[in-house]
UniProtKB/TrEMBL annotation, chain A:
<dbReference type="GO" id="GO:0006888">
    <property type="term" value="P:endoplasmic reticulum to Golgi vesicle-mediated transport"/>
</dbReference>
<feature type="transmembrane region" description="Helical">
    <location>
        <begin position="227"/>
        <end position="248"/>
    </location>
</feature>
<dbReference type="InterPro" id="IPR042855">
    <property type="entry name" value="V_SNARE_CC"/>
</dbReference>
<dbReference type="GO" id="GO:0005794">
    <property type="term" value="C:Golgi apparatus"/>
</dbReference>
<keyword id="KW-0653">Protein transport</keyword>
<keyword id="KW-0256">Endoplasmic reticulum</keyword>
<keyword id="KW-1133">Transmembrane helix</keyword>
<dbReference type="Pfam" id="PF13774">
    <property type="entry name" value="Longin"/>
</dbReference>
<keyword id="KW-0812">Transmembrane</keyword>
From TrEMBL, chain B:
<feature type="domain" description="Gelsolin-like">
    <location>
        <begin position="693"/>
        <end position="766"/>
    </location>
</feature>
<keyword id="KW-0813">Transport</keyword>
<dbReference type="GO" id="GO:0005789">
    <property type="term" value="C:endoplasmic reticulum membrane"/>
</dbReference>
<dbReference type="Pfam" id="PF04811">
    <property type="entry name" value="Sec23_trunk"/>
</dbReference>
<dbReference type="GO" id="GO:0008270">
    <property type="term" value="F:zinc ion binding"/>
</dbReference>
<dbReference type="GO" id="GO:0000149">
    <property type="term" value="F:SNARE binding"/>
</dbReference>
<dbReference type="InterPro" id="IPR006900">
    <property type="entry name" value="Sec23/24_helical_dom"/>
</dbReference>
<dbReference type="GO" id="GO:0030127">
    <property type="term" value="C:COPII vesicle coat"/>
</dbReference>
<dbReference type="Pfam" id="PF08033">
    <property type="entry name" value="Sec23_BS"/>
</dbReference>
């Protein structure tokens, strides 16, 4: 199940196109509603299903906002050095992205959605988007300049979600995608990679200051023990002299 | 690749500021206020052309002038009881604020942004003393012939109050600017230093943002909560027996067919249809079907969508199916016997269908909803009109429509209501659906295809404009004002989210807004105050844009200056909006009294506080000389008049219009313009795009101005009457109307024949020009003495006495009595 599709420019994370996410959610949630076959009246579905659906819908809506902001953050983090194909796990969902010719293609799907299919979908979008708008990408400055690409996204998505079409695609694309080689990481880790480094940095500097302290402490202890040894020797000698003087003489 | 700052221009308004640059930079702190002429800014002696001299020379010259200056034109005392010709020759012009000329030149246009007082009083007590209402009237999304558009990766705004940078800010130096609303000093960002117009660096004060009081920004992605929505239109049609009987379906489907390519939008535009009687019908328009599929949902108690993803379809891809449906729809219900109508459930279904994306719902309704949630009962009793002293049922009967509208507003859905009916439909209740979701209301009383051809034409023309006009989606508007002032009441169609943010699921170019203001802190140290309205919206092409209007007004500390700056039209419109609220919350008679008292109080205040020499008579400053006339006109307006002749829906509709129409159209509704047209000449005519448009002078609205040997045209906003006198010049009859004599004038004539004579051309050019001035289509009624419409023509003669209302002279006497008490 595909929930969110976004296309952005790699250089500055400027969003170029997106698919209105709520549509999919509607599809997904209404999939248990009886479909019409022609003219005529309908049986109403049991109301409890609908109550649950409404509740689910509200929850998903909230989560989507969060996923969307994660996606935007991700666009800002990605750069030329980032792996060009990657899957990022985010709880029960996964982000899949492809970077091609300076453009990031990102999709949010359920974790159970076949990875192979997700990347085939992204490749499909990539080819069409590059064909249609590729040349204009570096020059635009307005966000969502190619929002009209949404129409194509929605159509493509439908063909990938439809289970019958999916089987066909599966057989065609087996050779195209070597999914195993695609890196898997956690979205939180990627977004917090920066923070982790700075944490490491501070830990390292902590360590070095601590070792410095250890060194000085050790030095101090060494000198103290030397003094102690000298003092013990001195006492011994004095005792010896006293002993010799009083008992031997 | 870094984002570049690209600036595109519709047509930049370039103010030549080469030499008087210093004057401009200091201009903000130099504003001096003085009472002076409303109309003659250029000739004003107080601001000679060599203004840029500097503050040291300016002040003494000003004080010297104000000592010797005579009373300005605006304050010229007029004795209303004696002055008979009050109306100006041309249209009434708004007063010009007393600002230095260079600031006034770039100030916001009065058609877009207008204040009731063009000179803001320094303190609330001073305002209370003047007894004039303080407020703003806005027409923020007006169609503009030129509008600078700025694309920039960062939009410069004040860090504390979020005001957009505007022409009235002060640049302290090259690197810092002072906000004109909260007076915080902000840094000028590096990018702003470069001026793309002149391609020069280091001139931030010449950027388009600082040169134009009205402009539009292309918003960066921080201004988007979600990707910009596509244009989505949903048409909801009543197809009960009553509706089919009126024959409106033909007109709607025909208009849609004609304008389907002119609907604003791009390749993502979506469209859907719902029809309803006692059940709800959906139409599956999925690509690939051979013909539209109708799906009927009969369970109106718990409405659901049968096939959620194929009811709202891409217009470009499914255009043929949509056209198919539009062609067959009028015949589909031809033989229906269903009289019930379930509007509430249909609206719920519409809300469900659009809640994912947002968009516009257009509802066509012809009778009182009778089934399901939101069913209404008739509340109008014609007998009660005469007996009861006060008008009842002005407030909604159920809160269902308001609640649904608020849900819609939350999901960026706006509902526009077209009411076509011959009976009572309870517009007071139904109207809530549009009012809180920022929609518009159209009302066509006694609509019928055969019996009311004029109504049909009007509906057709309005529909064309409605379908093709510009539209903004998922909009919000915020109005900011200088520290010390506060906005407290809003008028118009919207929902107020978080104290001062107006939520507008849709915004259209024909919507007006009004706000009331009060002065919270004294404005003692300030020479001027500013107001800024910012409208953030998604265009039908999927662009997020911000339209910003900024207005600057002087602050004054004397009553006479306040009166000199009073804008009588704006005051009247604001009072009308306030009176509508009052008649719903209190009562109609209360509202009427309040309006009368407003005129009495302000004239009393003028008499006691401004006038030094007491003269007999009813004295008013020249700028307010039309005030009592306009108040009387309001009292005789459909919305507020008493008597038995006004139907409840007509009254409620007039009230809606007063609240959400922009000032220019409201003024015509309140005070129609009367012209004599049988002797039109080209003298003083306007020349608009190679057409000559005669400009006859405006006559007073009194029967004594009519003469039997003439023909008179009355422009009442949504309707134009052409009254033919009994002994009308036969030349006019033959050359303009194409009729041999007076007796041949038909009782229902709505067209001027296209004759090849100079008189005919002049008259048609004039009527056409009047019609072009407004976005809706006024019907033309040619009337003679026997016409049934003669009564409504004469009702607009507001200076005359009627059975239940005073004549203008009597009203003046009444006011005078109260004033001199």
């Amino acid at each position: 199940m595909v929930l969110l599709t976004m296309i952005a420019r790699l250089a500055d994370g400027l969003p170029l196109a997106a698919s209105m996410q709520e549509d999919e959610q509607e599809d997904f949630l209404n999939s248990n509603v009886p479909r019409a076959t022609g003219h005529g009246h309908f049986e109403t579905p049991v109301s409890t299903t609908r109550g649950r659906r409404r509740c689910l819908q509200a929850k998903l809506g909230r989560d989507l906002q969060q996923y969307q902001s994660q996606a935007k953050q991700l666009f800002r983090k990605l750069n030329d050095q980032s792996p060009t194909r990657c899957t990022l796990e985010a709880g029960s969902m996964s982000f899949h992205y492809v970077i091609e010719k300076g453009v990031v293609y990102l999709v949010l799907s359920e974790a159970s959605f076949p990875k192979k299919l997700a990347f085939a979908y992204l490749e499909d979008l990539q080819a069409e988007f590059h064909e249609q708008h590729g040349k204009k990408v570096p020059t635009v400055s307005r966000p969502y300049s190619f929002i009209e690409f949404d129409t194509y996204i929605q159509k493509t998505k439908k063909s990938y979600i439809d289970s019958r079409a999916r089987r066909n695609l599966g057989s065609i694309n087996t050779e195209l995608q070597d999914v195993q080689r695609i890196m898997v990481a956690n979205i939180e880790e990627v977004l917090q990679r920066g923070e982790a480094l700075s944490a490491l940095d501070s830990k390292a500097s902590n360590l070095s200051s601590l070792s410095k302290k250890y060194r000085s402490d050790a030095k101090y202890l060494n000198t103290r023990s030397t003094y102690a040894k000298l003092a013990a020797g001195g006492v011994f000698f004095i005792m010896l002299i006293v002993y010799v003087r009083f008992w031997w003489l | 690749m870094p984002t570049e700052s690209l600036i595109g221009y519709g047509a930049p308004v370039c103010v030549d500021s080469g030499s008087d640059q210093d004057g401009y930079l200091q201009g903000c702190t130099q504003v001096k206020c003085c009472p002076r002429s409303l109309y003659s800014l250029v000739n004003c002696p107080n601001f000679p052309p060599q203004l840029s001299a500097g503050p040291a020379q300016l002040s003494p010259s000003l004080s010297g002038l104000s000592l010797q200056s005579q009373t300005p034109e605006a304050l010229r005392v007029v004795n209303l009881l004696q002055e008979r010709n009050l109306l100006p020759l041309g249209p009434v012009t708004p007063p010009t604020p007393c600002l230095p000329q260079d600031l006034q030149k770039i100030n916001c246009h009065p058609e877009v942004f207008r204040s009731t007082l063009t000179s803001i009083p320094q303190t609330q007590s001073l305002l209370n003393k003047a007894k004039l209402p303080l407020g703003l009237l806005l027409h923020p999304f007006k169609d503009l012939s030129q509008l600078p558009v700025v694309t920039s990766s960062t939009i410069v705004r004040c860090r504390s109050c979020r005001t957009y940078i505007n022409p009235f800010v002060t640049f302290l130096d090259q690197r810092r600017w002072k906000c004109n609303l909260c007076y915080r000093v902000n840094d000028v960002p590096e990018e702003f230093m470069y001026n793309p117009v002149s391609r020069s660096y280091g001139e931030p004060h010449k950027r388009p943002e600082v040169q134009n009081a009205t402009l539009e920004f292309i918003a960066p992605s921080e201004y988007m909560l979600r990707p910009p929505q596509p244009a989505v239109y949903l048409i909801v049609l009543d197809v009960s027996h009553n509706a089919v009987e009126t024959g409106y379906l033909d007109v709607v489907c025909q208009s849609l067919l004609e304008n389907i390519n002119a609907l604003p939008g791009d390749s993502r535009t979506k469209i859907g249809f719902i029809t309803f009687d006692s059940t709800i019908h959906f139409y599956n328009l999925q690509e690939g079907l051979s013909q539209p599929q109708m799906l009927i949902v009969s369970d109106i108690e718990d409405i659901f969508l049968p096939t959620p993803d194929s009811l709202l379809v891409n217009l470009n891809e499914c255009k043929e199916l949509v056209q198919d449906l539009l062609r067959s729809l009028p015949q589909m219900f031809g033989k229906t016997m269903e009289t019930q109508c379930a509007l509430g459930p249909a609206l719920q279904a519409a809300f469900k269908l659009l809640s994912a994306t947002g968009g516009r719902v257009s509802v066509f309704q012809t009778q009182l909803p009778s089934l399901g949630v939101g069913a209404l009962k008739s509340r109008e009793d014609p007998n009660q009109r005469a007996s009861a002293k006060d008008i009842q049922h002005l407030s909604p009967a159920t809160d269902f429509y308001k609640k649904l509208a608020l849900d819609c507003s939350g999901q960026q859905v706006a509902v526009d209501l077209f009411l076509l009916s011959s009976q009572y439909c309870d517009l007071a209740s139904l109207g809530c659906i549009s009012r809180y979701s920022a929609g518009s209301v159209y009302y066509y009383p006694s609509y019928h295809q055969q019996h009311n051809p004029a109504g049909v034409e009007c509906f057709q023309k309005d529909l064309k404009r409605y379908l093709t006009r510009k539209i903004g989606f998922e909009a919000v508007m915020r109005i900011r004002c200088s520290k010390g002032l506060s906005i407290h009441t809003f008028h118009g169609n919207f929902f107020v989210r978080s104290t001062d943010l107006l939520s507008l699921p849709n915004v259209n170019p024909d919507a007006g807004f009004a706000v009331q203001m009060s002065i919270e802190e004294n404005l003692v140290d300030m020479q001027s105050v500013s107001f800024q309205a910012a409208l953030l919206y998604t265009s039908s092409k999927g662009e997020r844009r911000i339209r910003v209007h900024t207005m600057c007004l002087p602050v004054v500390n004397s009553l006479s200056d306040i009166f000199a700056g009073a804008d009588v039209q704006a005051i009247t419109c604001l009072l009308a909006s306030m009176a509508v609220d009052r008649s719903v919350t209190a009562s109609l008679s209360d509202a009427r009294d309040a309006m009368t008292n407003a005129s009495i109080d302000s004239l009393t205040s003028f008499r006691t506080s401004v006038l030094t020499i007491q003269q007999p008579g009813l004295l008013a400053p020249a700028c307010l000389r039309l005030f009592p006339l306009y108040i009387l006109a309001l009292l005789k307006q459909k919305a507020f008049r008493t008597g038995t002749s006004t139907r409840l829906d007509d009254r409620v509709f007039a009230m809606c219009q007063l609240k959400y129409q922009p000032l220019a159209y409201v003024m015509l509704m309140i005070h129609p313009a009367l012209y004599r047209v049988d002797d039109l000449t080209d003298e003083g005519a306007l020349n608009v795009s190679e057409r000559t448009i005669p400009q006859p002078r405006v006559q007073q609205l009194s029967v004594e101005k009519l003469s039997r040997d003439g023909a008179f045209l009355m422009d009442a906003g949504s309707v134009i009457y052409l009254w033919i006198g009994r002994n009308c010049n036969p030349n006019f009859l033959t050359q303009v109307l194409g009729l041999p004599n007076y007796a041949a004038v038909p009782l229902n004539m709505n067209m001027l024949p296209e004759l090849d004579t100079a008189e005919s051309q002049r008259t048609r050019a004039f009527v056409g020009w009047l019609r072009e001035q407004r976005p809706f289509f006024p019907i033309l009624h040619v009337i003679r003495d026997e016409s049934p419409l003669k009564a409504s023509f004469l009702q607009n003669m507001i200076e005359d006495r009627t059975e239940s209302a005073l004549s203008y002279y009597e009203f003046l006497l009444h006011i005078q009595q109260q004033v001199s008490k």
